[in-house]
Design brief:
- It is a single chain.
- By secondary structure, the protein is mostly helical.
- Helix content is 57%, strand content 6%.
- The protein is built from 27 helices and 9 strands.
- The strands form 3 sheets. A 5-stranded mixed beta sheet has the order 6-5-7-9-8.
- The protein is globular, with a radius of gyration of 24 Å.
Length: 571
């Protein structure tokens, strides 16, 4: 049964209101996660004329958006924060574009002012000071930035609804697809955080939709719209380049239709690519200079890629290509990761598929797999707007499986709205009452699971593995324990009249001090020597090899929000 349009619009608006409510609670209660203060502080510096010193590995838009409300707040910089921003602070080590961390003098004997410097430690510490050194109201700043992110997450939901409604005319299917996004712990967890993930998710969803419309009915206006959306997505986060292979595949599959459209395909390509480049130039205005020359010896020491050196005079704007070079270098070097009890510096092909399965509710996994298999049977005859989301989502996952950066399901966030759209198309195509009832049953199951998980969405894990209680056994870091529970730790200590703790916290220490939690930071070896008192260890630290003695010898006295393990020593 297809809902009447006015009723469907009211239901869609109500669903978005529910999503906002489900996110505003965590936005107020969650402490700053590891990367949030960095992104918020960096976005603020970009608005105030300091582009692009901090976090040059990401394009600016996704960091600038959550910082917009800060421009209307009376904020100050402490002397230490100002020194970091001015580049006058000195650090013992520096991060090259690729390769191991070394003393900064090895790269910059003449000082730190050169363009090729990657201010990674400065940007992290600046953000922590900016938000939590007591100069400003850190809680108000975080909530303001997170509110912008919530609006972006709601926009993704609205886009899903509009996509299905526009392509199928089935309002009920559109509402189901939208509800799968609204009541999804993954979208609720990362949709309210101040990171680049929700921005690029919206950007990719919009770019994919408009590209599909361009291929379906080619004309110059759609080429410009698709190029503008793609350019915006690229300036959100450079993982957007993953769209290249699947979109090229779609072009090849539709080449006959493009040739018969009456418009020269090459003309469409020029307009599409030219619009992308125009958006990038506008975002980086007026910083259009190419990268400055760099001696070959220093380029080699920094890990600056050969292509960057070879084409340097043509890389305009230079800051955009610097971000690309840093991103590719990070992907090559990799990132320490944890999966199913094992640590690795190299990427694992099964990391992201397992992360998707472990972090998604069972009904969402069932619907995704069933609908993808059903789509496979009709692939050759499926309309373009039905085929595009599955092709892109599948290719995105396959490319992610080759990455050495395995640190979180949040890097798969862009495929979640595509899966919702794919499921919505399935519901519209197979509208038999029995199928609809099964879909409604699975949706009801997912809604129940999501509501029961409130407000601890970051630590949500599939019911198949025992939920959040057991999540740390499978994945950690941003999948589970990302420093979000400092506020809850303070509440726990007050309730149990605990006046001091020994602490190994995976998060922002400035936040701990901002909350005035009496603590002594300890390593695993130092904690082993303790004979009394209270010890608190974050799950992301506890699962490291050096803490095996504690895992093997003691059960925690309590757990705070699943992620913080509390031990009463000497008891």
């Amino acid at each position: 049964m297809i809902a009447k349009t006015p009723t469907a619009l009211w239901i869609a608006a109500s669903l978005l209101a529910v999503m906002a409510i489900l996110m505003i609670g965590p936005a107020r209660q969650d402490s700053a996660t590891v990367d949030e203060t960095t992104a918020l502080g960096t976005g603020y510096t970009y608005w105030t004329g300091h582009r692009f010193y901090f976090v040059p590995e990401h394009p600016p838009v996704a960091q600038m958006l959550p910082a917009v409300p800060l421009l209307f707040m009376d904020l100050k910089l402490s002397p230490n924060a100002q020194a970091l921003l001015n580049g006058t602070a000195r650090y013992p080590w520096a991060r090259p574009w690729a390769g191991p961390i070394r003393a900064w003098q090895d790269f910059f004997p003449e000082g730190r002012g050169m363009w090729y410097f990657w201010a990674l430690p400065e940007s992290q510490l600046f953000g922590q000071m900016f938000v939590y050194d007591g100069t400003n109201d850190g809680d108000a700043m975080m909530l303001a930035g997170r509110t912008v992110q919530i609006l972006l997450a709601l926009a993704v939901g609205a886009l899903i609804f509009w996509w299905i409604r526009d392509s199928t005319g089935d309002n009920a299917a559109a509402l189901i697809a939208m509800a799968l996004w609204v009541f999804n712990p993954v979208s609720l967890a990362y949709g309210h955080l101040i990171t680049t993930d929700i921005g690029v998710t919206l950007g990719i969803a919009g770019a994919v939709l408009l590209f599909a419309k361009l291929l379906d009915r080619p004309d110059l206006a759609r080429a410009m719209a698709g190029g503008a959306a793609m350019g915006l997505a690229l300036t959100m986060k450079l993982t957007t380049i993953v769209l290249g292979p699947p979109l090229l595949l779609l072009v090849l599959l539709r080449r006959r239709q493009l040739r018969s459209s009456g418009i020269n395909p090459w003309k469409l390509a020029v307009v599409f690519l030219g619009t992308i480049w125009l958006v990038i130039l506008l975002v980086y205005f007026p910083h259009w200079s190419p990268p400055p020359p760099l001696p070959e010896s220093q380029a080699e020491a920094l890990g600056v890629p050969g292509w960057f050196q070879a084409f340097r005079p043509f890389l305009i704007p230079g800051d955009f290509f610097k971000a690309l070079g840093l991103t590719l270098g990070h992907s090559k070097v990799g990132h320490e990761n944890y999966l199913l009890g094992a640590w690795s510096q190299e990427g694992r092909w099964d990391y992201f598929p397992l992360a998707f399965l472990l972090k998604s509710p069972i009904p969402f996994v069932i619907l995704t797999i069933v609908c993808l298999l059903a789509f496979g049977k009709v692939f050759r005859h499926a309309p373009l707007l039905e085929a595009t989301p599955w092709v892109v989502a599948t290719a995105y996952l396959l490319i992610a499986m080759t990455s050495n950066v395995n640190i979180g399901v949040r890097h798969l966030l862009p495929i979640f709205p595509l899966c919702c759209v794919g499921i919505g198309n399935f519901v519209a195509r197979w509208s038999q009452p029995l199928i609809r009832k099964c879909v409604y049953g699975l949706l009801g199951w997912q809604i129940l699971v999501t509501i029961l998980a409130y407000p601890l969405y970051i630590q949500f894990f599939s019911e198949a593995v025992g939920g959040a209680t057991n999540g740390y056994k499978y994945l950690i870091d941003s999948n589970y324990d990302w420093g979000q529970d400092a506020n809850r730790l303070k509440q726990f200590l007050a309730e149990h009249d605990i006046h001091h703790i020994y602490l190994d916290y995976f998060g922002t220490q400035y936040n701990i001090e901002y909350l005035k939690i009496p603590n002594t930071r300890v390593s695993a070896d130092e904690a082993r020597q303790l004979t009394d008192g209270w010890l608190v260890v974050s799950a992301s630290e506890l699962m490291r090899p050096e803490w095996s003695w504690l895992r093997d010898s003691r059960q925690p006295t309590a757990r705070v929000a699943y992620t913080l393990f509390v031990y009463h020593l000497g008891a």
